[in-house]
Amino acid sequence: MNNLPVIATGINGLVGSRFADLFSSKYQITPLDLNHPHHPVDITNYKQVENTISQSQGKVVIHLAAFTNVDAAWEQRGNKNGLAYQVNVIGTENILKACKATHKHLIHISTAYVFDGANESLYTEEDSPHPIEWYGQTKWEAEQLVMNSDISWSILRIDQPFRPDEFEKKDVVHKIIERLKVDNLPPQFANQFFGPTFIDDFAKLLNFFITTKTQGLFHATSGEKWTPYDFAKLLKDTLNLPGSIIKGDLNDYLKTLNRPYQKNTALDCSKLSQTIDFSIESIEDAVKKIVVD
Question: CA separation (Å) from 182 to 175, 242, 289, 290?
């Protein structure tokens, strides 16, 4: 069956737009988008959210929209009237209420930034979140709202999503490519770790969770652990990019920073791999699909 109705926030963003492109023949998406030309929806306004969700025949709401600028969020820390809190917490609360009123399943997208980054190993779903900055705090509060609700829900945590093509908002991959092309890449940390998320795979995950409505909390990245230095080297070597890569030291950088910074956001995705019916690509294979002009 084609053109199945589904509802989504953030569908025009870095992740959502790629999902919409890849599954355009399968889903008819009702957007909850402040910039929609005909039916703008502010997710911090419950009435607008509920009106749009109730009018859709879709049984699933994908909640991708978030205030993700970590530096800007830090400047708003403690301010519940600030945009970060309003979008990430109040927006999620409104979507939850509307899902309950209309009996929809919620797929809530969260982040590895709910953790403090002190673990040396990959974070599992059993590890207790302990956010150390405001973006992570707001996303953790949103997660708790979802977990404590009495609706049907899935939470998918991701980290540093990237896509094969260039997008208006540059992802971690295209930022590195851009700087390497002009040989102006800042030193890349060799003692900090993250877990890249290939958006094409994540789009498949969204399709799986829409179809199955599988409930629970899942880490949904590559399940790999990379330093920015090794990741930049992989990009340069695989894509035959110019420019030089210099090792950086996170500890030196932290001395110049006015906000907390996680040393490790890599996620263990074993639970996910035992749940889904396909395999997540390796980062090395995903990088081969990146298009370079």
Answer: 11, 8, 22, 18
- Going by C-alpha positions, the residue among 133, 169, 222, 149 that lies closest to residue 10 is 169
| pTM (whole model) above 0.85 | yes
- Host domain of residue 68: 4-169+195-225+266-286
The phi and psi torsions of 254 (rounded to 5 degrees) equal -60, -25
**Residue 162 is assigned to a structural domain of this protein:** yes
Q: If you average pLDDT over residues 18-33, what whole number do you get?
A: 96
- Count CB-CB contacts under 10 A for residue 120: 9
What pLDDT digit, counting tens, does each position of 238-273 carry? Answer: 999 999 999 999 999 999 988 999 999 999 999 999
pLDDT reported for residue 2: 67
Q: Is residue 253 part of a domain?
A: no
Distance between CA atoms of residues 43 and 65, nearest Å: 9
What's the structural domain count of the chain?
1
Residue 125 lies in a domain: yes
As a whole number of angstroms, the distance between CA 240 and CA 204 comes to 28
Q: What is the mean pLDDT of residues 22-50?
A: 94
**pLDDT score for 154:** 98
Q: Is residue 100 part of a domain?
A: yes
Report the CATH number at residue 84: 3.40.50.720
What confidence score (pLDDT) does residue 157 get? 98
Give the DSSP per-residue string, 203-271: HHHHHHHHHH---EEEE-S-S--B-HHHHHHHHHHHHT--S---EE-HHHHHTT-SS---SB--B--HH
Share of the chain above pLDDT 70, in %: 99
